[in-house]
Amino acid sequence: MTFGGAMEFSGLQKNRSFYMPELPSALQKKAMQLQFGDATAVPDPSDAQAVSRSFPLTYGQRLVHFLSSSFGIRDSQFLTEHPVMRIGVVFCGRQSPGGHNIIYGLYDAIKTHNRRSTLIGFCGGTEGLFEQKTIEITENIVLAYRNQGGYDMLGRTKDQIRTTEQVHAALNTCQTLDLDGLVIIGGVTSHTDAAQLAETFAELKCQTKVVGVPVTLYGDLKNQFVEANVGFDTICKVNAQLISNLCTDALSAEKYYYFIRLMGRKASHVALECAHQCKPNMVILSEEVASSKLTLFDITKRICDAVEARAEQGKYHGVILLPEGLIESIPEVHALLQEIHGLYRKGVSVDKIASQLSPWASALFEFLPSFIKEELLLSPDSDESAPLSQIETEKLLAQLVEIEMDTRSKSGRYKGKKFNSICHFFGYQARGSLPSKFDCDYAYAMMTVKRLHGPRVSLIGKPSIHPAAINLKGKAYEMMLHDAEKLLMDDLYRNPGPLQFEGPGSDSKTISLTVEQKDYIGKIKELQDYLDKVKMIVKPGCSQEVLKVALSSMACFINILSLMSPHTTEGHTL
Amino acid sequence: MTFGGAMEFSGLQKNRSFYMPELPSALQKKAMQLQFGDATAVPDPSDAQAVSRSFPLTYGQRLVHFLSSSFGIRDSQFLTEHPVMRIGVVFCGRQSPGGHNIIYGLYDAIKTHNRRSTLIGFCGGTEGLFEQKTIEITENIVLAYRNQGGYDMLGRTKDQIRTTEQVHAALNTCQTLDLDGLVIIGGVTSHTDAAQLAETFAELKCQTKVVGVPVTLYGDLKNQFVEANVGFDTICKVNAQLISNLCTDALSAEKYYYFIRLMGRKASHVALECAHQCKPNMVILSEEVASSKLTLFDITKRICDAVEARAEQGKYHGVILLPEGLIESIPEVHALLQEIHGLYRKGVSVDKIASQLSPWASALFEFLPSFIKEELLLSPDSDESAPLSQIETEKLLAQLVEIEMDTRSKSGRYKGKKFNSICHFFGYQARGSLPSKFDCDYAYAMMTVKRLHGPRVSLIGKPSIHPAAINLKGKAYEMMLHDAEKLLMDDLYRNPGPLQFEGPGSDSKTISLTVEQKDYIGKIKELQDYLDKVKMIVKPGCSQEVLKVALSSMACFINILSLMSPHTTEGHTL
């Protein structure tokens, strides 16, 4: 396989390759102001000690805010000021739309500051990193892949820098190639690896700075500092197109229930966002199931009740979304999987596992249809979770619902027509998509984002970054719950249509992001309203008492805020 | 279920609903010239007698060509000239993008000629036609669905007007509602039904004219008079988007072979068109397999040889397209299916079928994996073909290839990495798509196209329209064959991207159509060149001999052409 080679483009690909991503205003000028903020922290304070012990050199660095420079600094100052840099970049983890634009942005950024800086790509993912398989990324290569989908400029393989051997191979490569920086483009597990690598490099006084860039179609690498991941916007749009086509299809033929499983690993971000975009009849989120401890029986019953209620209105079609992580979040299946994976770790061979299960797990296992038994027995992924993309939860549920509806029909409770289902798994067919405008822009601008912090302690005591789950108290989930009954019964399907690059729809953002941003900005707005009210009250002509109370209150208040965020008043111009 | 109700639109849906389809120039003016052409004929002359015997009243009507009127007729003449008409319309057959625009075009056409004309929609397909479930199609309904996907304005059900009971129910409806015309929107089998209905209506002197409109995503209702079917363009574009995403994915991860089965029923038009648009490594067409009598073993070997050759170049990924009709075109499987369906017709119950197969069919059946056994035993569709959408040929081939690669590996012949595959079936997720600009325009203009002719005699002696197969001597297939070796080895993947409504790509046509049109128009051009040459030679100053030879040759030539196409010189202005 040759990397970095030019492909034959379709008209649209060609057109996209000329698209110039838009930068946020703060990054449009070469002069910008950096403001140091708080130290990075772990989401759960009880993890702080363990994390800081594991990452003594890298934990707790301060956040950097990029602001438009308020000083008049000439461009020329920058072009001469920056030293020559050698940066390595590697794709690590599943291909996600926008990955190529990270490299495009990185290339433009380092070349803008010094033409003699070099960008080195590792071919074939982490294997290329360990074995020093490199190509120098030239302008021609960047132009051939900008705004294009996939990871085929460099390819990817194992997606892992974890064992001592692997870490040392990476170290050796960085030192041999004399790299100033190593950029790791990846998702949750790649960022755990990147954090570990950064700590090891710091410990061994290796000069290479490790930078992780959150690119994951699952959208599960977000926190208070990172609102979205590169690729999520495109993935949701492509999947939403297909889901809404099935909604239209269901409504036209009126005889099928579509059970659609969506990629997304443990978290249900893709499923929730697609539900917002398409308004199907039902979506069952993993986080919801785990939190309410819904059993397989509960979920089946919930769907059957819906089918029954719709049949009473003469409706025999519907669309139900399921995240791929659902299977792991069902308590009894979770326990069964834990046992299976435990036996795997003990070296029990696949054909012996079923016979060594506990009586309880065995009873559940025997109850399940044979196709799902085979899938549950597949060996776990490298992060010890079940191989979710291969477990056909949609078929399992469709089958259980069919059996239950037949029972209800025989007992005379259900009087409608026979229940029919068609199952789909949407995942692979979206991953290689041309990135949306949002992802092109966001990825291109990402070059400046520094490595994320915020690892959490996992159960076995080894700190690692966990995927962000859906916030069941958040706006996006709340909105969905609010409309659930109407969506279930009234077929309020919405069709966002295929991903557009020009004209209407091309600038749309994901609904989850819009809603969450509204919330954040809404609160800042609320605070500003309070400040304005104070100004209105405490103005020339107000009484001495009012002035006195206001002054002392504000002094105390500023004191508290300063203690909570000690660095926010300092500024630094880059 | 309420039909004709307004939905909540996304931004793109709203925008599309304002799109005004473009009409061909001949239809843009209200005045147009009709030219009567040859009598319609069957493609195979040996069928003519049987067809004319079955359709004595409707077979052999003359073709009508629409030309821009060369006479200056005022618009007002038309608006007053046309009588009030009552037209019924019914969706019959699988939902196909553009179906709503047929109704939109029909509505505009009849209202343009007389505001008091009425368009009546039958709700729930042919069932609605039999039971006289109707709604009057108003401007509001048309506006709510124009340029939108699906068939949900009216829905569809059985897709059949075949039994004496059904035909009489349709007749009764048309007479009760006093319809001047009945428009049947559908594919191959619906057109057989429509032809039969037209003949019966003519026989019984029913005043309702039956009109069939070729709307089928399979693209298999084409002949010398109909170059394309409504829906085919959209379906190919949506599928091509997904296939090319998988190509990019394969190239990024470099570890999977994607086996993709495409909807299309017996014919492979969708697969061939998608192969042209995406350039995957391999496409196996049903027509090719049937014509070369390739066995399951041959096809498996062909794929394994390709996997082996690619592995020698270090390539462990690939994309292979399969039409859903493939399974029926493999000779030994075809024979097995014939036996199974024969036993079905004899009333043998499913669980007894396997034991009653002939020894030869039984041997093949026992060799097959259990999932495909179950699928082959499914009851046949209403047109007596296997339920193709439910037979997972892609999984069968992937499994056979895996077994064969393991054997080659054990024998030491194959030295590469383990073969991995992921299977997909693309069909349902494209059917409900927003129609492409091409399909919006084409469907809107279709209102003026009269019922197709060209039924062929089927094996059991009952005339029916057969799906058009890929022409293995045609340009589109030839182009594909020509590049097959390069496409197989060199990963020349092309990504047409998602369906666009504005900007680049929004005006693209299917490659099959472009190629076929080129051929046709190319030949007409060639003829015109000859005529020009004659003009150049036979001009004032040429010898008497030349003039004499030219005159007598042309007179004879015109004579022959006139005898072959007796009506083409007459004109008639509408």
Automatic annotation (TrEMBL), chains A, B:
It catalyses: beta-D-fructose 6-phosphate + diphosphate = beta-D-fructose 1,6-bisphosphate + phosphate + H(+). It holds the Pfam family PFK. Gene3D superfamilies: 3.40.50.450, Phosphofructokinase domain, Phosphofructokinase, domain 3. Keywords: Cytoplasm, Glycolysis, Kinase, Magnesium, Metal-binding, Transferase. One of its GO terms (biological process) is photosynthesis. Residues 86-338 form the Phosphofructokinase domain. The keyword DNA-binding does not apply. Its cofactor is Mg(2+). InterPro entries: ATP_PFK, Phosphofructokinase_dom, PKF_sf. It comes from the Eukaryota. One of its GO terms (molecular function) is 6-phosphofructokinase activity. One of its GO terms (cellular component) is cytosol. Transmembrane segments: none annotated. PANTHER family: PYROPHOSPHATE--FRUCTOSE 6-PHOSPHATE 1-PHOSPHOTRANSFERASE (PTHR43650), PYROPHOSPHATE--FRUCTOSE 6-PHOSPHATE 1-PHOSPHOTRANSFERASE SUBUNIT ALPHA (PTHR43650:SF27). This is Phosphofructokinase domain-containing protein. It comes from Cinnamomum micranthum f. kanehirae.
